[in-house]
UniProtKB/TrEMBL annotation:
It comes from Nitrobacter winogradskyi (Nitrobacter agilis). This is Uncharacterized protein. InterPro entries: DUF6615 (IPR046723). The lineage of its organism: Bacteria, Pseudomonadati, Pseudomonadota, Alphaproteobacteria, Hyphomicrobiales. It comes from the Bacteria. Pfam families: DUF6615.
């Protein structure tokens, strides 16, 4: 499910954007985000709820909500998408020309709008998702930055630091370059792999009817066969913490000054619960529309076996 998508979507984006380069009208990041949403709809069955609600401006193109109805926990990520532009084999000439975008009547930096929204919210973290054509990826990987793929994530607070620090003409050019961004990138697989599963049984398919074949995944800390489900809010938070720690170990000093990853919430917000209820009732979301909203519905993994073929859940 999500783990497979995390592996397959980035190389698709590389090819998709590269094919648009000769066109008179090149695809923009909105096109790739639409494709990502379509992929999530296809991959997620009834455990991934995709909407496009009318919401106040937050600086985000996407809102990813991770919920676990079993224990009522919640974690949100706000994502802003940017596409890389540039040509030739010199990778330092590639960059994200819209990274310093300003929005609103006050012309506030988009990165600051995104991060201020996250700072003011509960259990919310800002991320950037960067889309890169094949020529950009090949140039970067040739220079040793093997983590650069068609779709990468980066810590929103670290990107905000680069954007706010672009106070001179040279820095405005340098801080939005791939050279400045590449050391901060991490893959989608860091969030979505290994995949979690629910072992077979009626609870594995709720809410809704069966949507997936059985798959090998992780439940209760072990490899088991079951139905794939999105990661729990606690798992997503821990994977963000691990990504931050990995960056710190590479010498990115800014990670120490950036806000920490907040704790998960012990209550699912009313608007997210309403989205789940609408999906279960097969209702359509309202038109309107400023950003995609995605709700990932997880469940508690299996903890241990009580006998051959019998599964007992962890006590609550």
């Amino acid at each position: 499910m999500l783990c497979q998508l995390a592996h397959h979507f980035p190389p698709f984006v590389e090819s998709f954007l590269e094919r648009s380069r000769p066109l008179r009208r090149r695809f923009r990041e909105e096109s790739v985000t639409d494709l990502l949403m379509g992929s999530l709809i296809t991959a997620g069955g009834r455990r991934i709820i995709v909407e496009f609600p009318d919401e106040p401006v937050t600086g985000a193109d996407m809102e990813w909500n991770f919920v676990n109805p079993d224990d009522g926990t919640f974690f949100r990520m706000l994502l802003q998408a940017k596409q890389c532009y540039g040509g030739g084999s010199v990778w330092t000439r590639h960059g994200y020309k819209e990274l310093l975008h300003q929005s609103g009547s006050g012309r506030k930096l988009q990165a600051s709008v995104l991060c201020d929204t996250a700072r003011a919210a509960t259990a919310t973290y800002p991320l950037y998702i960067f889309y890169n054509p094949a020529s950009t990826c090949e140039a970067a990987r040739g220079a040793g930055f093997t983590a650069v793929t068609g779709a990468n994530l980066a810590d929103g607070y670290l990107i905000e630091g680069l954007v706010r620090g672009a106070t001179t003409r040279a820095l405005r050019t340098g801080n939005k370059s791939l050279k400045a961004i590449a050391p901060l990138l991490f893959p989608l697989t860091d969030l979505f792999c290994p995949q979690a599963v629910l072992a077979t049984g009626p609870q594995a398919f709720a809410p809704g009817a069966p949507a997936f074949p059985l798959a090998v995944g992780i439940a209760g800390g072990r490899s088991v066969l079951g139905v794939p489900v999105p990661p729990t809010p606690a798992a997503i938070r821990q994977r963000l913490v691990a990504a931050r720690d990995a960056l710190a170990k590479t010498g990115i000093k800014e990670t120490a000054a950036a806000p920490g990853v907040p704790a998960i919430a012990e209550r699912i917000p009313d608007d997210v619960s309403a989205a789940i209820e609408r999906a279960q009732a097969r209702a359509r979301s309202q038109p309107g529309l400023r950003r995609w909203r995605v709700t990932f519905v997880s469940a508690n993994p299996v903890d241990r076996y009580s006998g051959p073929g019998l599964i007992r859940r962890r006590p609550q």
